[in-house]
Design brief:
By secondary structure, this protein is α/β, with parallel strands linked by helices. It is built from 22 helices and 13 strands. Bound molecules: 6-O-phosphono-beta-D-fructofuranose (F6P).
Length: 547
Amino acid sequence: MAIAARALDELPSWEAVRAHARELSGRTIRELFDADPARADALTFEAEGLLLDATRQRITPQTLELLVALAREAGLQERIAAMFGGEHVNVSEDRAALHVALRAPRGERVLTGGEDVVPDVHGVLDRMADLAERVRSGAWVGATGERIRTVVNIGIGGSYLGPEMAAIALAAQTPDDLELRFLSNVDGSDALRVMRGLDPAQTLVIVASKTFTTLETMTNAHTLRAWITGALGEEAVGRHMVALSTNAEGVAAFGIDPENMFGFWDWVGGRYSMDSAIGLSTMIAIGPAAFGELLAGFHAMDEHLRTAPLERNLPVLLGLLSVWNRNLLGHPTVAVLPYAQELARFPAYLQQLEMESNGKHVMLDGTPVRWETSPVLWGEPGTNGQHSFHQLLHQGTEIVPAELLAFTRPVQELGDHHDLLMANLLGQAEALAFGRSADELRALGSPEEQIAHRVCAGDRPSTILLVDGAIAPHALGRLVALYEHRALTEGVLWGIDSFDQWGVELGKVLAGTIADELTAATPPAPSHDPATNALVRRLRAARGRPV
Ligand code: F6P
């Protein structure tokens, strides 16, 4: 069945949602609290050990009813079913987006094109587990017989952000004598940083690239290959380099033994791939059993998405809140603020997931969208951000909806740190919502001449997402899947293809041409605008090349 999108502004409930938004825009969040004593209960949702507190959003229970109606009219349920059914929901690339199959338990059936993909998924997971165990136990040795002490993951975008985010999030579960390093940028400084102090004889390099053609990754892979072979000889590649890719030919051409390649499939998008073979560094770090827990966490959230009614479906609700804040209230950005240092790279991970998925300008049929799509997502861990950009959150002229994430317990007890962290999270959410009025400041004795500067108007929406327990693989899997499915929900409402990324292509093509011009032995014919041509000449001159 062909996948088609319905225009957001032509859905039957759209005008009712707009009228409701106009009505609410004149009421403060404080007024909404005062008007409904049951608000906290009505706007707090819980599932799979996650609590979603939407009470501080500028919404009422009726808002969610209207948004859920909109989601139904947009065909969200059908699209969820289509995704799980292996249909080509990635319309512009004519592919399935079947990341849910990556975490399907052994024996479950997930079909695309009439073929059950789960046996292949587990076949690769088994091979990954074998390698991970051998590296962890010391059975896998390098060319000189030494055990592996450092794993370097070379990759970019989806082949980097998820593995690095997970490595930081789950660092407590990684053996002390195993180090993970991540090499992403084509900037040589990054490669030099990664190689600094490392002994190639004790290093395993993972080249992670779905396409195995990405300029940054291939450049870095060749640099580290030369570093290894320079120290240990050509034969050492087989003991020190493995590949994660869908491009077996490219891997073979690079010189990595097919035995050392772990595959995945075109229905796994880069930003949806941290639980595929791309997760090999994660599996080596935490071990196959814990990686299984991570997958089980993903699967639990998949099942929640598939089976929970839309009214209580956490990723759906989060997606609808995005649409509300973006399209009805007009907020152009969203801040993700993890109150968990383990999630230090979660905002960066979500930037790709959200903005590469939903930063789109046309609908599925190629016609322009008439509404805003993805907000700009940004963020830093709390409490650090409080002493930097939170000033703008509290008193700036742009309203930034905030998402505050936290775990009920710390990974490791340390005095009162966790309680102080949680106190700050709650304090920020309270300050954003309710602010501090001039009268309150006067009552507290603030000098009159400072009152205007000190007033915090409040009325700034936020969501709290509280995860039961301490961060662990299962919880991380649930959290990532939650956001994957939020992106899906938003994309369906916006009528766009959340699974393609054509916008990144042009810059890649231009960089290829310019690279040739920068390095040519003779001055290239000017082929760009005058400003770019001038900079090409300047950069050539700076490198001593004729201009
Ligand atoms: O440039 C965008 C992109 O294609 C991402 O979607 C992807 O995650 C990244 O590049 C890396 O691609 P690959 O895994 O093929 O090297």
